[in-house]
Amino acid sequence: MNKLAAVGLLFALVACQQEPSQPKRSPRVVEPSALAATMREMTADMESLKAKAQAGTLTLADVESLRAAHEPIKTADPTKPEEIKESFPGFAEAYLSNLDALADALRQQGNREAQIEAFNTVIATCESCHQQHCPGPLDRIRGIKVEQ
To answer: How far apart (Å, rounded) are the C-alpha atoms in residues 86 and 64?
Structure first.
């Protein structure tokens, strides 16, 4: 047998002895809880409004729309109900109240600084709650505040 044929035979033997590759399993997709989904929306909404708050172009319609969309925070089921502390409903109410205060600042046609202060108060409520309940997104939340 010539050398080329021997190498080919050896290659075929090695290739046949290897186990067939296992198909890769895709990671299991877990649906977020209603509360997690609501908070993700809230975060995205507030991040998108940050630029408007900075520019002083935030509108009453913007805030009223958020208020309605974020109302489920009070009743949405959490991922781990056992980790929700008694203080959570108060934080949810404070968040919604602070959105109302931001709307009031816009109704009163307060200056840009008053609007930014009201916007940052809303974000501070999120920060306070997450310090007690779920600290993971704190850096992202802090990044939404508008620098004055």
So the answer is: 27
Cβ atoms within 10 Å of 122's Cβ, excluding its own: 26
How confident is residue 24, by pLDDT bands cut at 50, 70 and 90? low
pTM greater than 0.70: yes
C-alpha neighbours within 13 Å on the C-beta side of residue 96: 14
* Domain coordinates in residue numbering, the chain: 31-142
String of DSSP letters for 54-122: HHT---HHHHHHHHHHHGGGGTPPPSSGGG--TTHHHHHHHHHHHHHHHHHHHHTT--HHHHHHHHHHH
CATH class of segment(s) 31-142 = mainly alpha
